[in-house]
Design brief:
The protein is of the alpha+beta class and 421 residues long. The protein has a five-stranded antiparallel beta sheet, with helices on one face. A hairpin with a 2-residue loop joins strand 10 and strand 11.
């Protein structure tokens, strides 16, 4: 080394520090890559992404290669710095070299390149992978040896490097990703995707038309009266029952009735009418919407009656009800719009039909009434008071003050809701 000039040693030292910065920045950039975006770009034919993805298939080898290169470079830099400082400072050379090189490496070969790589991982990882691929081939025997020893030590403590947690996301993690992807996904699309994930948290009771609001016709009624109800039905499918709604006969599709009337010109008796009735599809209460959606698809059904453990009818759920949980309300439906059941008063309070579904009300008004108990506001008031309240009874639920405006012997019909002060 004595015959090599100091200037040449300084140039070599600068090159080694640059190489150290390269390895440090590349390590951070490769480990900071978004694996899902990387996979997408690789599938789209991006060459840099494809190289990086192949290197990351074995992160233990990649880290081994980078650390081998970084340590070789840093040790060589330390040796050159010691020689240069000994020429300049004599016996104090090694101490000066240690302090100065530590500071220089920390700033120029560690903190700065790693910060840059963490901020712009793709801009560094993809082009740098061009260098890493041939280095992996060149140093493979040494990388294999180092990894074999390292993996053997990890296996002693029960860690298997080749069987990590992977990149799979749970539903909650995916929900967080969607909520944070505001810049890349339109708000409406993001809400729909989150709603799909939330289907497993919602059951058929949350969206069904309750038993007391079902539009149904008793087949024991007069035939002419039945036909009048059918022709004035607001729905395309009508439930028929015998005497009591728990004794259901089936659904009559008005399209079938229209076809029958077109063919025969006249439907003269109940027997002809009942031959067009279709069988009932039953849905157990408590069924999550994501499960019921698949069941509707497999059974080729669009409507089902929700029944409890005793077989009693609780309500009606349709495919449209489930789809509305994803895309929002349609222009028509079996139930009145939420906005029709809520009226704003001049004092800022709201007059609400107590039969309203709490989840629909929360979504429409951005309120936060509890949804893990009763499904309607009436049910929530009765559960809180544990009795049928009198008119003008006041209570507080969460952040809201409620006053009963109208009630009968069995239920609360109208309430006033305002924010608690």
């Amino acid at each position: 080394m004595d015959e090599i000039s100091t200037d040449s040693l300084l140039i070599a030292l600068a090159v080694l520090i640059c190489l150290s910065a390269f390895f440090s920045g590349t390590e951070t950039a490769m480990m900071s890559l978004n694996r899902y975006r990387l996979r997408h770009l690789s599938q789209q034919g991006h060459k840099g992404a494809s190289r990086a993805e192949r290197l990351l298939e074995r992160p233990d080898r990649l880290i081994g290669l980078i650390l081998i290169g970084n340590n070789i470079v840093n040790l060589a830099a330390a040796s050159l710095a010691t020689i240069v400082c000994q020429r300049w400072f004599g016996a104090w050379g090694p101490a000066v070299a240690t302090g100065a090189l530590t500071f220089i490496v920390l700033i120029f070969a560690e903190v700065t390149p790693k910060t840059l790589a963490a901020l712009y991982p793709e801009k560094l990882a993809y082009p740098n992978s061009v260098v890493l691929r041939p280095l992996m081939t060149l140093f493979y025997p040494l990388v294999w040896l180092v990894n074999s020893i390292s993996n053997a030590l990890l296996s002693i403590v029960g860690v298997r490097p080749l069987h990590g947690d992977g990149d799979d996301l749970s539903a909650d993690e995916l929900r967080s990703v969607l909520n944070e992807a505001s810049a890349m996904i339109p708000r409406r699309h993001r809400e729909m995707l989150v709603s799909i994930l939330d289907l497993e948290k919602v059951t058929v009771e949350d969206v069904m038309v309750p038993r007391n609001e079902l539009y149904a016709i008793d087949i024991n009624d007069d035939f002419k009266n039945m036909m009048k109800q059918l022709t004035h039905s607001p729905h395309s499918k009508v439930l028929l029952y015998r005497g009591n709604i728990d004794d259901v006969v089936g659904f009559l599709h008005l399209s079938d009735l229209l076809r029958l009337m077109t063919r025969d010109q006249e439907v003269s008796d109940k027997a002809t009418l009942l031959r067009e009735v279709r069988e009932i599809y039953y849905v157990p209460e408590g069924t999550p919407l994501n499960v019921q959606l698949l069941k509707f698809q497999r059974a080729k059904e669009r409507l089902g009656l929700v029944v409890d453990e005793y077989g009693d009818i609780q309500g009606l759920v349709s495919l449209e009800d489930i789809l509305e949980e994803i895309v929002g309300d349609f222009t028509t439906g079996l139930q009145p719009a939420v906005s029709d059941e809520i009226n704003r008063n001049e004092d800022g309070s709201y007059e609400v039909d107590a039969s309203i579904n709490i989840r629909d009300m929360n979504r429409e008004m951005n309120w936060k009434f509890p949804t893990d108990g009763p499904k309607t506001l009436n049910g929530l008031v009765l559960e809180t008071l544990e009795e049928i309240p009198k008119v003008h009874t006041r209570l507080t639920i969460g952040d809201y003050q409620i006053e009963v405006l109208d009630a009968n012997e069995s239920m609360v019909t109208t309430v006033r809701v305002e924010q608690a002060k």
